[in-house]
Amino acid sequence: MIFNGMIVSVVFLLLVLVTIFMGVNIVPQGTKYVIQRLGKYSRTLGPGLHFVIPYIDMVAYKITTKDIVLDIPSQEVITRDNAVIIANAVAYINIVSPEKAVYGIENYGVAIQTLVQTSLRSIIGEMDLDDALSSRDAIKAKLKGSISDDIADWGITLKTVEIQDINPSLTMQKAMEEQAAAERSRRATVTRADGEKAAAILEAEGRLEASRRDAEAQVVLATASQTAIEKVSQAVQGQELPVMYLLGERYVEAIKDMSTSANSKLVVLPGDIPAAVRSLMGSMMK
After folding, report:
1. Residue 261, exposed/middle/buried by CB under 10 A (0-12, 13-18, 19+)?
2. Are 168 and 83 in contact (CB under 8 A)?
3. What are phi and psi of 230, to 5 degrees?
4. Could you give the 3-state DSSP secondary structure of residue 153?
5. CA–CA gap between residue 122 and residue 75 (Å, rounded)
6. In angstroms, rounded to a whole number, what is the distance separating the alpha carbons of residues 235 and 285?
7. At what angle do helices 240-260 and 273-285 cross, to 10 degrees?
8. d(CA 27, CA 121)
9. pLDDT digit string (tens) for 210-267?
10. Backbone angles phi, psi at 153, to 5 degrees
11. In the chain, which ranges are E strands?
12. What's the predicted TM-score (pTM) here?
């Protein structure tokens, strides 16, 4: 009888100890416990030692208060000019109200992930391809602004969201490479045409300048010849012998030049050079 009483006492003592143990809750730093009393939300426990009513209160959720990293999977996004690009992101969130996070949405992680993907498609869909590829900061700002208000109702704060990759699809990359190659070829053609045009202009300007200088030279030579003739005329004053001497000298020099030319094989000198000179003078006097 005494033995049975001791067993009951031990069992009762163990039951008491288990009950006390069940009522003690130590919440670690960086974590919050959501307590339900008889299936209904009761309170949220912060870090530290807490006591709850055993069998009535229970820890329904253990929520971290550290920043949570959500990897947003890659997805195809169509821009305003119908280009397909691949975009993904990463979001950093923090749960400030655990009771709202667990009772306000079924799965806040999946919900935020879906919300980011939807907003990303909407934002990029309003941009052209070139703008989408060069406006990460603008996309990030719009994405953060559009999501922050929505998830605030779930007791969650969006710390930041970053665009990891935003690249054209393989088909678009091939098309862009072909377009870039065509553009480089067009620029090369234009550059070559500009060079040929500049060269032709320079060549024409060179010919024009040369012609202008040739004309000036001819004028100078004609003026010099006129001056020389006037001076010779004044010097000879109608006498035939000096004129014959000058013409004869030039005639002999011309025959001499012809004889030294590479194309000349035979030079025939007139037998009567003075007569030949007189003949030239007669032709000039006519």
Report:
1. exposed
2. yes
3. -60, -40
4. coil
5. 12
6. 18
7. 110
8. 40
9. 999 999 999 999 898 888 878 877 776 666 666 677 777 777 787 777 777 666 556 5
10. -65, -20
11. 24-27, 31-37, 40-45, 48-51, 57-64, 68-78, 84-95, 156-168
12. 0.58
Q: Residue 157 is encoded by which pair of tokens?
A: 């704060």
Tokens of 259: 């004889």
Tell me the one-letter amino acid at 61.
Answer: Y
Show the tokens assigned to 173: 């990359």
- CA pair distance 240, 281, nearest whole angstrom: 9
Nearest to 132 by CA among 172, 160, 92: 172
Residue 76, SS3? strand
93 pLDDT higher than 80:
yes
The DSSP result for 181-229, as a single string, is: HHHHHHHHHHHHHHHHHHHHHHHHHHHHHHHHHHHHHHHHHHHHHHHHH
Residue 74 — φ and ψ, nearest 5°? -65, 145
Mean pLDDT score of the chain, rounded to an integer? 85
